[in-house]
Amino acid sequence: MCQLRHLEYSFQWGDESDPPSRITSAIDTPSRILKMDISLNELSSLEHEAFIPLQNLRDLNASLNKITKFIGIEVLKKLYSLNLSHNSISRIENLVQSTSLVELNLSMNELEDISYMPSMMNLQVLNLNNNKIKSLDGIQALPQLRELYAQRNDVIEVIPLTSCFHLQIVNLSNNKIQSLHSTVGVLGQLKRLDVLSLHGNPIERDRSYQTDILKETNVKTLDNISVRPLPKPTVSVEHDPGASRHIQNINALKDAARQAFEERMKESRAKMEENINFMQRRILSLQNEYNDYEEKLKNDLDACLRYLDNLSATESAGVQRDHVRDSIGTPHPKVWQGRKSRHHDHQAKTDYSSIRDTERLLQFASKELSREGT
Q1: Fewest beta carbons less than 10 Å away: which of 79, 183, 221, 281?
Q2: Does residue 341 lie within any of the structural domains?
Q3: pLDDT per residue over 172-199, tens digit each?
């Protein structure tokens, strides 16, 4: 875990057209770098300077950071896949020049509005799950989109999908879609749609939910369950009614087996996603714990150094080096805290609350002042 806070690629300008005689690494020639993983750090932004040398970068994973802006991405003209999941992005911008982008992952961010989505003619896979998106308006800028994952948002309707004729997979589960009639009307125009997930929406409670979708669309898998079995083989049973019943029984058993398989896969996938989310949250929690511990160590060190600076020659001779080392960042008693606590304990031993005589109070006050001065 590097915990990078700033990304800057350091290099020297040179002519890469004439390769050196010795074997060099990708770091020596940044144009050779095709894939970069800077995930699980503390980056808050991606600037131009970091990516200018990486002119041939194809795949960038910057997930699990604290990124709020990514203006540097626009210099990566050949970028194919971009993963910005698990960040703090609230606005999609600076992707106008990303004409080669095919896969974009913006899940687990703070997006509420995607209407500013730039036109990306080659984008085919878009992941927007676990945001705060209320409308899919802006998706029209992606004419080649084939896979859309926008589960766990606040989407109300699917009308913006009308122009996405190439969609094959749509996951809009766990949103707030209410109108079954409008939804079926839009999805019915997507002739290439094979896989659809809408479970967890209000429309799922409609009695004709599955019937209407199967009637108006060509989907083969609905909510992770196969709904259109393979065509049954044609067998001549004109002279054997028993064989006909046997084939029907076999096909019924096959359908039941397929459905059981899909249900088990659905449960397994849900558990896997839950475990992944838990692990990602745990990783972030560990990062925070590390930061807190680092801050505690710094505070201990500062207190220790201040204490040592004020020691006299006699006092410093009585301090053991190992005791100072063992006290940093541990719950053990610390010499620099002990002095302070003893001082407070000493002050607390004398109680003057019962004294009423002004003359005596002045005498005690004079003694305390003289004690403080020593």
Answers
A1: 281
A2: no
A3: 999 999 999 999 999 999 999 999 999 9
> Quick count: other Cβ atoms within 10 Å of Cβ 150?
25
C-alpha span between 174 and 270 (Å, rounded) = 13
Dig out the tokens for 78 from the structure.
């050949």
Structural domain boundaries enclosing 104: 30-230
Alpha helices in the chain (DSSP H): 48-51, 180-187, 209-216, 241-309, 313-317, 321-327, 335-348, 358-373
Q: How far is CA 66 from CA 38, 45, 303, 318, in A?
A: 12, 8, 31, 47
CA distance 235 to 49: 68
- Please give the tally of structural domains in the chain: 1
Handedness of CA 7, 39, 58, 107 (dihedral sign): negative
User: Are 105 and 127 a contacting pair, CB within 8 Å?
Assistant: yes
Give the tokens for residue 279.
């692990």
What count of other Cβ atoms lies within 10 Å of the Cβ of residue 348? Answer: 8
**Contact of 142 with 161, CB cutoff 8 Å:** no
The answer to whether residue 62 sits within a structural domain is yes
Asked if residues 97 and 120 have their Cβ atoms less than 8 Å apart, the reply is: no
CATH code (residue 180): 3.80.10.10
Tokens found for residue 319: 């301090």
Residue 9 placed within a domain? no
Query: Which residue, 146, 115, 147, 118, is CA-closest to 133?
Result: 115
Inside any domain, residue 206: yes
pTM above 0.70, yes or no: no
CB 199 within 8 A of CB 175: no
